[in-house]
Amino acid sequence: MIRMTHAKAQRRKESQVQGLCAFAPLRGTSFLSRSAVLLLLIFQFSIFSSQFSILSAAEKPKTLLLQEVLASVQSQYPPYLAALIEQDIANGRVRQAQGAFDLNLNAGGTMNLAGYYDGRTGYAMLEQPLPFWGGSVYGGYRLSSGFLPNYNKDRTGVDGEGVLGFRIPLLRDGTIDRRRASLWQAQIDQELADPIILRQYLDFIRAATISYYTWVASGQRLALAEELFRIAKDRDSAIAEQVKKGASAPIVQIDNQRLVVSREIATVQALRRFQASAIELSLFFRTKDKAEPVIAERNRVPKAFPPHPRLDESQLTADIAKAAVFRPEIRRIELLTQKVEIDRKLAKNNMLPNLDVGVEAGQFFGGNRPRDIEQNEIEAKMEFKLPLQRREAQGRVDIADATIERLNNDKRFARDRITADVRDAYSALIAAYDALKMTRRNVELARQLETAENERLKQGATDLLALQIREQATFDAQVLEVEAQADYFRAQANYRAAIAADAPSQLTR
């Protein structure tokens, strides 16, 4: 972009004026000629003016607002984007747990290599686990050949046998089993990702807000230091003239030069503080395309802080109730309790005996089959198994009961912790507001004293040292006011985080 300085613009204006003067001899020409020339000059001047206004508007920096920084955090801040990946991880765990209910293909066979019987068998089965009551259905094809004993259940005709059946556990693994427990817990983890991400999101928003107002305060403090330095430099020139005329002693000029140096040192320190805050802010403020850190320039510092209202005390009770609902800590503990409850149910399930029933139907294909095998056969199956000691399951029940009791205590304390956080943040915000009012009164009094001391110096009733002390007192009071305003907005950020005021309705990328 082509930039135009004020001096260049002034020279161009002067050349335009000179051009108008150069056409002064045209007064003797015809009226149409003079009108055409005049219109041409007006047109050129209007184009120049519009270009200058556009360039001036482009050069004017745009004030950096907090909303712009927070928008960058929501869309470009790497730790927040990394936190959002927890949702993808949880979704992957759900899909992984769903894999226990995938359709399975089982195939195999046997062959008698030596002995009286020389038969061979083969089978291919599809088995589908059911998502309810721990059962499964299966079906497939069996084929045997050669000489097999008649008690061999795999014996078929020449064309083989179609098989269809199901299995259902009546006691253990009926209402819950390891497959369903893993799936339910993975689904809870899917919900658990939201409070984890929300906790980090609130912390990131608070940190970005505090960093932003620290940057604003350091920028305004730098401006105050530069103004104080300018006053001492301007006075140094006036004192030098008085020393030449003999109106002031040389020691006065030396003292003011010492003051100039000390204030210049303070300006350098304030500049370093501003640069450090800008670098810290760049971690949150990033470019939209590549998410690279942007070091905000000084000309983007707001001239003043936003309004700072006093929080109504009657709102505290409502905010405590709001925090109990929207803060992620309690929701996280509730979800963890649900996961442990599933572990407890599974452990109690493992203490039950196994009583599995099933039905299998077979249909033989073709007419060439053994005479002792019917065309259609149905077989019912039952199996009972009882673990006698069951210590492993009982230990899991004890662990789950103790973990649930601990989580209930954590939940009660989390409510108390949230209430304490809100009350403490409210107290800090009110204290910051009251301190800000007092610092403003302090600035007013310091300015009155500085003005009065300046008048006394003009009247010869005081010396330069007294005025320097008043100027420094005013500067210190202004710095305290700036820091008090920053403290107010930092306290406001902590309060908003305590009540989860910035919690989004949905956590998405």
Structure report:
With 509 residues, the protein is α+β, with helices and mostly antiparallel strands. The protein has three domains: 6-59; 66-89 and 181-338 and 403-498, Outer membrane efflux proteins (OEP) (Up-down Bundle); 102-180 and 353-389, no CATH class. It is 62% helix and 11% strand. It is built from ten helices and six strands, in the order ααααββββααααββαα. The chain has helices at 6-22, 31-59, 66-76, 78-98, 178-245, 250-282, 315-326, 328-350, 391-458, 464-498; strands at 104-111, 120-129, 136-145, 161-169, 354-364, 376-385. The protein has a six-stranded antiparallel β-sheet, with no helix packed on it. Helix 3 (66-76) runs antiparallel to helix 5 (178-245), helix 5 (178-245) packs antiparallel against helix 10 (464-498) and helix 8 runs antiparallel to helix 9 (391-458). The longest helix has 68 residues, at 178-245. The protein is elongated and about 140 Å long. The chain starts with 5 loop residues before the first helix and ends in an 11-residue tail after the last helix. The relative contact order is 0.10. The model is unreliable at 1-58 (pLDDT under 50).
Main β-sheet, spatial strand arrangement:
1-2-3-4-5-6
Number of strands: 6
The third-level CATH topology of the largest domain is: Outer membrane efflux proteins (OEP)
Class computed from helices, strands and strand pairing: alpha+beta
Question: What percent of the residues sit in helical stretches (DSSP H or I)?
Answer: 55-70%
The CATH first-level class of the largest domain comes to Mainly Alpha
Report the biggest beta sheet as strand number plus sense, adding barrel if it closes. 6 strands, antiparallel
Task: Name the overall outline.
Answer: elongated
